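Regression test attached.
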Amino acid sequence: MRRGRSLLAGVCTLAALALAAAGCGRQGPAGSDEEPLTVSAAASLAEAFGRYDEGFEGGSPRFSFAGSDELAAQIRQGARPDVYAAANAKLPGALHREGLVERPVTFTTNALVLAVPADSEIGALSDLERRGADLVVGSPSVPVGSYTRAVLSRLGAQRAGRILARVRSQEPDVKGVVAKLVAGAADAGFVYRSDVVAAGGRLRALVLPERLRPQAAYAAAVVRGGDRPELARRFVAGLRSGRGARILRAAGFGPPPR
Amino acid sequence: MRVVRPFGALVTLALALALCFLTLPVVAIFAGAGPRELVASLGDPGALDALSLSLKATLAALAVIVVVGAPAAYVLATRSFRGRSAVITLVELPLVLPPAVAGIALLAALGPQGLLGGWLEDAGVRLVFETAGVIVALVFVAAPFFLSQAQAAFSAVDRTWLEASRTLGASEARTFLSVMVPSALPGLLSGLALAWGRALGEFGATLIFAGSLSGVTQTTPLAIYELFATDLTAALALSAVLVAISGALLLSVKLVGGRVAPGLLAR
């Protein structure tokens, strides 16, 4: 009897929770203006978008930050954020060809750098080839990982091989690389200049030679099927010029390519 | 019977709901990964590396958990001492820690700049970015599952058997090995299965503490996460393999446990 009663109580609790959840979903007036914009954005945009969100006309958007590749996979699986902002133009372009997003807009650029802890003795790329330096990179499918491999391939197979042999972890997004560096677990990692700015003095950026630098252009697109495409388009347009652009520059991002 | 009927219908409905909700995602994995994809995924060297690393690392973690955990649980079950419930709460704490917290906590404790980092470095022990680090993460998250089950199993053993064993002149060590462990075996095995399942599925603590590198630290869940971004079918196929292994594990332990238990009761 006692067991039966506690089971019933459990079922009732579950039902109450389900009702409460359904109620939350319908919260607010019939107009969808109260609903915040949802934005799936590359992990490297976290700090800058966090600041952009404060004065955005439609109210603070809800952000989901992760590797651009993971976010694209979610959209292919049916996730419908209002905006998708990636750390390259390739992934939004592919989603556009698949009819999932509107035409992407390239809104900013970023520089790939070799980041080391502020007190590190590593001063150049060549220092990585010496024994004992633990290197952390992004996995090949995430934009920062593919930029990293592009840089290394320009060094020639032999040097690239020596540096790749130092790779101790392939992180799912650039913030994973940053975390390993900040925690003192790794000696160096390839991240964006904006990540070093965001780390606020704990990391130092070693600028890569011009000839090695890949073009890291960020593109954003309005996801099709959202119920507020106009607001989503204003969000994307605001990244290219005006307040959004100023915030991105202050966070270490560059102007969009001409 | 008549009075109970609406209640009976309600609880049956609840069970049906629970069953549907808990099995639907698993069904979806197998629906998304046909036999051909399963075979193809097993042929992928990266997936095989991840599976073999998962098996090796979880087995190593289980060995540590059993060798240290069984005697520790025995102490908790049979001795009464000041602060016993505090100790129990502390060793069960990792059960309620989010995996990411576990990973950060391990870095803060055993990472190069952690509490014991300098000491470990002097001893020449490296954990971060090493398979050993994966094993440490697995032990940390999975051990409490075994400890709490083992403690309950040892507590449930009839005290008169222990007294009989000691009266007949057996040492405490002998009593532990030939009375306690066999009597508590079903509970120990189910604790082992839970710990193994938790270890096989470990993701966050491993990624944060040990990193992710194929063949060294990339266990199957980490490989699945990486595949998800590029090749959903392959990710589903590898998931299906992991589900099959974990399911078989759970089932076999249940069967073994079921066979052991009645025998003990008859004794």
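Expected vs. actual: identical. The first helix of chain B runs from residue 5 to 32.
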